[in-house]
Specification:
Number of helices: 10
Order of helices and strands: HHEEHEHHEHHEHEHH
Helix content: 40-55%
Strand content: 5-15%
Strand order of the largest sheet: 1-2
Radius of gyration: 19 Å
Shape: globular
Structural class: mainly alpha
Largest sheet: 2 strands, antiparallel
Length: 273
Amino acid sequence: GTTILTRSLHNTGQLGSLTYRDMPFVLAPNCWSKVSTISSKKMTERERIHGDGIYVDYDSPEALEEVFWRIFVGEDYIKKFTLTPHSVSPELIENYRKYVSSILYRYGKNRYLSKCNNNILRIGSIVEAFPNSFILVPFRKPRQQSTSLLNQHLNLLELQQRDPFIERYMNWLGHHEFGRGHKTFDLTEKKSSYQDTQSIEYWLDQWLMTSRYLLDCYSEFSRHIIFICYEQLCDDSVNVWDPLLRKIDINNIQERPEFKLRQSTAPDNVEHD
């Protein structure tokens, strides 16, 4: 639900975010917009590589800012097999603030929207950079979310086997969630007992460890972190979406998005224990 939630927030028109128009020079959005013909082109919506029924065009917000962190401090958190929490120097925090300001200037907004799974690795630094920030954490029932993650991992493994560019592209973006370039979050001292990334047990264990880590973060950053149950958002959006907008100070929205829940189906060769 992260993509749908991001697009719904972006569609309020009150938040600025990197979009596909900013590719591939995502660190220089203003310069690129002046020289790129993409800045004025239209694109027919097409289904994204995930094959999940979500369609994108040039104006769709996307998780592209991880390139900033990968280039400047990648060695601090991108390890051979894992991604680890990291702290950011005051100098880089200031550079990040300038980078965000350049994106807001590009889109004529004064509030920033970031969709980045790896941000959980640097929550303290984000709060330091933006003391008024909100960190939204959508979650689903563990079996459903883990099955969805497994299916996506298997999908990317197959696609990257056929086209190695997809793996290089995802690694360049700093996206290691799925596929041949997958790296696990190393968030706790306790190491996972499950190493087979093609098993449902591995993804259930990842769900559990990540959830525990985020709950620990909440104890320190409760003013900033907002957990959102995606099932509730779909089933009762009036009592979830509307209060959320009030909480993050987004006003004068006339139309409520339609949130749909797609049930994940486990592959036939997966056994659950």
